[in-house]
Protein backbone atom coordinates (compact mmCIF):
# COMPACT_ATOMS: atom_id res chain seq x y z
CA UNK A 1 0.00 0.00 0.00
CA UNK A 2 1.26 3.48 -0.74
CA UNK A 3 0.05 6.65 0.87
CA UNK A 4 1.15 9.89 -0.63
CA UNK A 5 0.53 13.29 0.88
CA UNK A 6 1.22 16.57 -0.88
CA UNK A 7 1.12 20.36 -0.90
CA UNK A 8 0.79 22.37 -4.12
CA UNK A 9 -0.80 25.17 -6.04
CA UNK A 10 -2.12 28.59 -5.11
CA UNK A 11 -3.82 29.26 -1.80
CA UNK A 12 -7.44 30.28 -2.13
CA UNK A 13 -7.46 33.99 -2.67
CA UNK A 14 -4.21 33.81 -4.66
CA UNK A 15 -1.79 34.23 -1.76
CA UNK A 16 0.71 31.80 -0.32
CA UNK A 17 1.69 29.90 -3.47
CA UNK A 18 -0.35 26.73 -2.93
CA UNK A 19 -3.85 25.28 -3.28
CA UNK A 20 -5.01 23.76 -0.04
CA UNK A 21 -7.10 20.59 0.00
CA UNK A 22 -10.81 20.61 0.67
CA UNK A 23 -10.89 17.71 3.14
CA UNK A 24 -11.88 15.10 0.54
CA UNK A 25 -10.88 11.49 1.15
CA UNK A 26 -11.36 9.15 -1.82
CA UNK A 27 -11.26 5.39 -1.25
CA UNK A 28 -11.29 2.89 -4.09
CA UNK A 29 -12.77 -0.61 -3.79
CA UNK A 30 -10.12 -3.31 -4.41
CA UNK A 31 -11.68 -4.43 -7.72
CA UNK A 32 -11.66 -0.87 -9.09
CA UNK A 33 -8.10 0.13 -8.15
CA UNK A 34 -5.65 1.22 -10.85
CA UNK A 35 -1.95 0.34 -10.85
CA UNK A 36 0.15 2.88 -8.99
CA UNK A 37 2.88 4.64 -10.92
CA UNK A 38 6.45 3.63 -10.23
CA UNK A 39 7.91 6.67 -8.47
CA UNK A 40 11.65 7.12 -8.70
CA UNK A 41 14.42 9.67 -8.45
CA UNK A 42 17.12 10.89 -6.13
CA UNK A 43 16.48 11.05 -2.41
CA UNK A 44 17.47 14.02 -0.24
CA UNK A 45 21.03 12.64 -0.01
CA UNK A 46 21.39 12.20 -3.78
CA UNK A 47 20.92 8.41 -3.81
CA UNK A 48 18.56 6.58 -6.21
CA UNK A 49 15.21 5.63 -4.66
CA UNK A 50 12.09 4.00 -6.08
CA UNK A 51 8.76 2.70 -4.87
CA UNK A 52 9.86 -0.57 -6.45
CA UNK A 53 12.31 -0.81 -3.51
CA UNK A 54 9.23 -1.32 -1.31
CA UNK A 55 7.27 -3.77 -3.50
CA UNK A 56 4.77 -5.87 -1.55
CA UNK A 57 4.41 -3.25 1.18
CA UNK A 58 1.79 -0.64 1.88
CA UNK A 59 3.52 2.65 1.04
CA UNK A 60 2.55 6.06 2.38
CA UNK A 61 3.91 8.75 0.06
CA UNK A 62 3.73 12.39 1.12
CA UNK A 63 3.88 15.06 -1.60
CA UNK A 64 5.28 18.01 0.29
CA UNK A 65 7.55 21.02 0.47
CA UNK A 66 9.18 22.64 3.49
CA UNK A 67 7.74 25.98 2.26
CA UNK A 68 4.13 24.74 2.41
CA UNK A 69 2.23 25.71 5.62
CA UNK A 70 -0.27 22.79 5.50
CA UNK A 71 2.61 20.38 4.84
CA UNK A 72 4.54 21.73 7.80
CA UNK A 73 1.46 21.42 9.97
CA UNK A 74 0.79 17.79 9.06
CA UNK A 75 4.40 16.55 9.30
CA UNK A 76 4.26 15.77 13.05
CA UNK A 77 1.17 13.63 12.36
CA UNK A 78 2.91 11.80 9.51
CA UNK A 79 5.94 11.28 11.75
CA UNK A 80 3.77 9.86 14.55
CA UNK A 81 1.96 7.42 12.28
CA UNK A 82 5.15 6.44 10.41
CA UNK A 83 6.86 5.63 13.70
CA UNK A 84 3.91 3.49 14.79
CA UNK A 85 4.39 1.35 11.64
CA UNK A 86 8.21 1.11 11.73
CA UNK A 87 8.22 -2.64 12.39
CA UNK A 88 5.47 -3.51 9.90
CA UNK A 89 5.00 -3.78 6.17
CA UNK A 90 4.05 -0.09 5.82
CA UNK A 91 6.62 2.28 4.31
CA UNK A 92 6.27 6.07 4.32
CA UNK A 93 7.87 7.98 1.46
CA UNK A 94 7.98 11.71 0.84
CA UNK A 95 7.70 13.26 -2.62
CA UNK A 96 9.38 16.66 -2.44
CA UNK A 97 7.93 19.31 -4.73
CA UNK A 98 9.14 22.81 -5.58
CA UNK A 99 11.82 22.72 -2.89
CA UNK A 100 15.56 22.30 -2.39
CA UNK A 101 16.87 19.09 -0.82
CA UNK A 102 18.92 21.09 1.71
CA UNK A 103 15.80 22.93 2.93
CA UNK A 104 13.88 19.65 3.14
CA UNK A 105 16.70 17.92 5.05
CA UNK A 106 16.87 20.81 7.54
CA UNK A 107 13.11 20.69 8.06
CA UNK A 108 13.11 16.89 8.46
CA UNK A 109 15.96 17.11 10.97
CA UNK A 110 14.09 19.73 12.98
CA UNK A 111 10.85 17.67 13.07
CA UNK A 112 12.56 14.27 13.33
CA UNK A 113 11.30 12.78 10.05
CA UNK A 114 13.37 9.69 9.24
CA UNK A 115 11.51 8.20 6.27
CA UNK A 116 12.98 8.96 2.82
CA UNK A 117 11.78 11.45 0.22
CA UNK A 118 12.19 11.51 -3.56
CA UNK A 119 13.06 14.92 -5.03
CA UNK A 120 10.46 15.67 -7.74
CA UNK A 121 11.66 18.98 -9.21
CA UNK A 122 10.04 18.29 -12.57
CA UNK A 123 6.70 17.19 -11.09
CA UNK A 124 6.94 14.01 -13.17
CA UNK A 125 6.26 11.69 -10.21
CA UNK A 126 3.31 13.78 -9.04
CA UNK A 127 1.85 13.83 -12.57
CA UNK A 128 2.20 10.04 -12.81
CA UNK A 129 -0.96 9.75 -10.67
CA UNK A 130 -3.05 11.41 -13.43
CA UNK A 131 -4.45 8.06 -14.60
CA UNK A 132 -5.57 6.94 -11.13
CA UNK A 133 -6.14 9.67 -8.52
CA UNK A 134 -4.38 12.89 -9.54
CA UNK A 135 -3.12 15.47 -7.09
CA UNK A 136 -5.42 18.45 -6.87
CA UNK A 137 -3.87 20.23 -3.92
CA UNK A 138 -1.01 20.36 -1.51
CA UNK A 139 -1.05 18.43 0.72
CA UNK A 140 -2.18 15.26 -1.08
CA UNK A 141 -1.76 11.79 0.37
CA UNK A 142 -1.99 8.59 -1.62
CA UNK A 143 -2.08 5.13 -0.12
CA UNK A 144 -0.92 2.35 -2.41
CA UNK A 145 -1.88 -1.16 -1.43
CA UNK A 146 0.54 -4.08 -1.14
CA UNK A 147 -0.45 -5.20 -4.64
CA UNK A 148 0.79 -1.91 -6.09
CA UNK A 149 -2.58 -0.24 -6.70
CA UNK A 150 -3.75 3.24 -5.72
CA UNK A 151 -6.31 2.73 -2.96
CA UNK A 152 -6.79 6.13 -1.29
CA UNK A 153 -6.26 9.82 -1.99
CA UNK A 154 -6.45 12.32 0.85
CA UNK A 155 -6.87 16.06 0.18
CA UNK A 156 -7.17 17.09 3.80
CA UNK A 157 -4.82 19.67 5.32
CA UNK A 158 -6.37 18.86 8.73
CA UNK A 159 -5.57 15.13 8.52
CA UNK A 160 -5.43 13.50 11.94
CA UNK A 161 -3.31 10.56 13.06
CA UNK A 162 -6.41 8.47 13.80
CA UNK A 163 -7.87 9.06 10.34
CA UNK A 164 -4.59 8.24 8.59
CA UNK A 165 -4.17 5.08 10.68
CA UNK A 166 -7.76 4.01 9.93
CA UNK A 167 -7.19 4.49 6.19
CA UNK A 168 -3.93 2.53 6.25
CA UNK A 169 -5.66 -0.30 8.11
CA UNK A 170 -8.59 -0.22 5.65
CA UNK A 171 -6.16 -0.65 2.76
CA UNK A 172 -4.13 -3.36 4.51
CA UNK A 173 -7.26 -5.39 5.33
CA UNK A 174 -8.67 -4.96 1.81
CA UNK A 175 -5.71 -6.81 0.29
CA UNK A 176 -5.52 -9.74 2.76
Structure notes:
- The strands form 2 sheets. Strands 1, 2, 5, 6, 7, 8 and 9 form a 7-stranded mixed beta sheet that branches. Strands 3-4 form a two-stranded antiparallel sheet.
- With 176 residues, it is of the alpha+beta class.
- The N and C termini lie close together (12 Å).
- The longest helix has 16 residues, at 69-84.
- The protein has helices at 69-84, 101-111, 124-127, 161-174, and strands at 2-5, 24-27, 40-42, 48-50, 58-64, 90-96, 117-119, 140-144, 150-155.
- A hairpin with a 5-residue loop joins strand 3 (40-42) and strand 4 (48-50).
- 26% of the residues lie in helices and 24% in strands.
- It is globular.
- The chain is built from 4 helices and 9 strands, in the order βββββαβαβαββα.
Main attributes?
alpha+beta, 9 strands, single chain, 176 residues, 7-stranded mixed beta sheet, two-stranded antiparallel sheet, 24% strand, 4 helices, disordered N terminus
Amino acid sequence: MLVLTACSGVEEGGEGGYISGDGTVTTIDPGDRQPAPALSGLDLEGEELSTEDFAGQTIVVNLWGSWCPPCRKEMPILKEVAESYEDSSVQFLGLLTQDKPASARAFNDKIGITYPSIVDDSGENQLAFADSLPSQAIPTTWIIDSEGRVAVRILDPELGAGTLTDLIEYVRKSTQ
